[in-house]
Amino acid sequence: MQHGDYPHWSRDTIRYGDTDRQGHVNNAVFSTFLETGRVQFLMNSGRPIRAPGTNFVIARLVLDFKAEMLWPGEASIGTRVKSIGRSSFTLEQIVMQGDTVTAAGETVMVMVDESTRKSCPLPEASIAALKEMQVAP
Amino acid sequence: MQHGDYPHWSRDTIRYGDTDRQGHVNNAVFSTFLETGRVQFLMNSGRPIRAPGTNFVIARLVLDFKAEMLWPGEASIGTRVKSIGRSSFTLEQIVMQGDTVTAAGETVMVMVDESTRKSCPLPEASIAALKEMQVAP
Amino acid sequence: MQHGDYPHWSRDTIRYGDTDRQGHVNNAVFSTFLETGRVQFLMNSGRPIRAPGTNFVIARLVLDFKAEMLWPGEASIGTRVKSIGRSSFTLEQIVMQGDTVTAAGETVMVMVDESTRKSCPLPEASIAALKEMQVAP
Amino acid sequence: MQHGDYPHWSRDTIRYGDTDRQGHVNNAVFSTFLETGRVQFLMNSGRPIRAPGTNFVIARLVLDFKAEMLWPGEASIGTRVKSIGRSSFTLEQIVMQGDTVTAAGETVMVMVDESTRKSCPLPEASIAALKEMQVAP
């Protein structure tokens, strides 16, 4: 795992209440960490991924749990674009605590028209912005 | 504690992820249980507490923790009106798991005008509806 | 979708705080609903799935989002066994609000020895209990 | 509000899922932010507040909501000791987003013996450590 493999990194604080009675971070919080990376990537990265009048809907989430996470600490979330379709694209993410990869995730995001709430084709600008976040294999 | 002391009861499911590393339900979830009772009381009880064009804002929350809550199980939340002011009112609530009172809470709610986002006087209909939920001492 | 397709059903309360600024239930809460069904299925169904001295660890989670969920309401979670391996098994789940299937999920669970924290073979009794929760195609 | 009024500061990340359908951070998350400051203050500040074989239990929580919090952003939590009793003490906290105080809180914490689960007197070392975190009026 090299940091350079993911062009976008976000951070989140591991909360005391994120733990459950097993003593570690509850597995549903891993979905939250993926979201932290994803929304920052899509909405706050300064790139014109989202077109006016559109929004993103999550269609599929795959999470592979690699190691438990413990309080206290921080989560680092790496995000990159895996593939780009007509109206959807797939993100690849990893979650780390310190030097340990704790999870790997994949999410399929669909662009929807905010008025019709139906999927719509990704505009050129979005595709160009997403391509920059793709990492060559 | 008699159930009749609270005219409105709500239920919530205690979730596995509500627990924390101490093995019991995390204290912040108690605020969520109060909210479960409060929003159902204010918005879904069939009473015209909320006037069109207005909303409720929470101004103050007091929580006295009485006993720990454990997964699995259910939370029952009793709600009643303690006092009614000009643009605000105070709710009294208790949280129970089975026969055990686990917390007592008090919340001050303010009615705000949705357009100005400022507090506004409670209309007659709201006051009448709130009075019905008041329990004589 | 027939209820009979899933031998085990759990319920959870949709909380006001489960919603996010998009107005619907936040996607990470869907993982929580899967967990609600899973832990009840594995730990509280009266079946001897878990052997003494062992625990279950989630290795993989796949979630297909079908429809948004809205507050207020209830989540119903159907759970069944898809396949059984040497030390792991796969659960298939659906999440419903009313008559609408809002998500379909798959989780790979691994049995671990509590002392060594390593995976261990599923005992006969666990396999028998899991087989009863398998639905013939 | 001067930062020097609070000797201990913690930070937490405002998460997308912290928001609710009203568009702002859900009120129950404010309890979580107080907890973030409190547990770091009590357990990770390098001060010997907690004695071996003891733990802290929250007895009372008071929260005054001052302003709404919005995603994205960070929460800063200031914590200080208000008063020290025989087996309990009271913390005063504020929550800020940027330069805005969004909430003020007070929590009564009780030291309990981990074996008996009953309250026990604060040892000298704990009292001394707490006194250092008290701010003269």
Outline of this structure?
Chain A has 137 residues and is α+β, with helices and mostly antiparallel strands.
Please provide a written account of the structure.
Four copies of one chain form a homotetramer. Chain A contains two helices and five strands, in the order βαββββα. By secondary structure, the first copy, chain A, is an alpha+beta fold. A five-stranded antiparallel sheet of chain A has the order 1-3-4-5-2. Chain A is globular. The model of chain A has no long low-confidence stretch (mean pLDDT 93). At the A-C interface, helix 1 and strand 2 of A face helix 1 and strand 2 of C. Strand 2 of chain A pairs antiparallel with strand 2 of chain C.
| Inertia-based shape of chain A | globular
DSSP, total strands of chain A: 5
Q: Please state the second-level CATH architecture of chain A.
A: Roll
CATH superfamily of chain A: Hotdog Thioesterase
Label the structural class of chain A: alpha+beta
Query: What's the quaternary structure here?
Result: homotetramer
Largest sheet descriptor of chain A: 5 strands, antiparallel
Which series of helices and strands of chain A comes N to C?
EHEEEEH
Estimate the strand proportion of chain A. Answer: 35-45%
Number of discrete domains of chain A:
1
Radius of gyration of chain A: 16 Å
Question: Tell me, what is the CATH class of chain A?
Answer: Alpha Beta
According to CATH, what is the topology of chain A? Answer: Thiol Ester Dehydrase, Chain A
Low-confidence stretches of chain A: none
Helical fraction of chain A equals 10-25%
How far do the termini of chain A sit from each other?
A: 13 Å
Measured by residues with Cβ under 8 Å of the partner chain's Cβ, the largest interface is:
A-C, 19 and 19 residues
By DSSP (H or I, 4+ residues per run), the number of helices of chain A equals: 2
